[in-house]
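cron nightly-structures :: item 1 of 1
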Amino acid sequence: NDVIARAVGKYQINNPDVQISYTTAETDEGASTTSDYIRALNTELLSGKGADILVLDGLPVDSYIEKGVLADLSDILKPMLESGELLENIMNCYADQDGRMYGIPARFSVPILVGDEDVMKAMSGLDTLKQYAEGHPDTPFMLTGGKTFTYEELAKLLLSINYQEIVGDGSKLDQESVVKFLNTVQSAGNALGATVEPEPIPPLTEEEMKEWIASASPYWAKMNFHMGDYPVLDHSAAADEMKGIGDLYFPTTMVSDYGKSISTVNGLFIPSGMIGVNSASGQSDLAKDFVKFLLSEEEQNTDLGNGFPVNSKSLDSWCTKVLEYSTGASMLINGETIYVSADTPTKEEITSFIDMARELRVPLNMDRVFKEMILDESKAFFAGSASAEKAADAICKKANTYQAE
């Protein structure tokens, strides 16, 4: 995590007598899966070992809290909240009924929909999207860079938008909810002419295409919401993830030049740089001091392009740091190349967006293993080799076995 890695360096400069060792579990060597890494980490933590500070993105945080792995951070966070230093709408999502806080994000991004109101409203739920897609079979309500979507791309997007509806509290997957999800993806994919496999991008050879997919997949794997070209056509929408002021250029242009709208998605925000302190740490005071530094105005003022600050003063200051420049993009739509230019968003447009961000109160806490299991086991259904019920049964058995561990 770039935000935390940078803070480690800055903290050590400010505190030359402190040495922080920053390590990651995943490597490019071997054939270990995400679940393998998490199981190894769980074994270490449950035995009372492990790092003093933990980056919790994609990990089973609720399970760690239940098992006493994480230390309560409310003694350092409550004063920062009461002084207005931290964003109340974000931080309150991580307090239990007794006010204890075990893990909090260093940054957050904002999923948005851009487009016409009818499509954006339809995309807010599984039932509404399925009904819209089946009622508009010839309407390309989403577009993407001169190629068709794959069912897996759509599944990833709709899983993110409707994660809570599909997964619930994560304790046990419900087969009926998974079946609804699969059928909705299929209906949306049918309306968009989706394919099972990615289409080669001319003039690449098959070998070049394989190399391109291999090189690009780590990048796209990190994107939950980016999907499609911007909606210049009528009755169309696009999903995107705002990680900084620079991401607003095209969405605000869609509003000012094309009469579209911007909305957040079901009140969701995506936390990143989730930080927690190991309850078994022998240096908890020092670890908590680092957490305070990570959340400070000094450290949160820097825009690294990978999330908005959770420090309220820093977020306000971002509204004044606008670089004056224009950009553009070309899009191939229905065989025609359309060029879209985008100018710097105005201070009013930025302020309006920040006001929306201050209202978000639903964290997208997506378990990485759950996500991989759902997407992997869905492939048989989209390929036509399994029914929705059979695929859902396989997903639920695999996911619920993992959860029971």
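cron nightly-structures :: done
The chain has 18 helices and ten strands.
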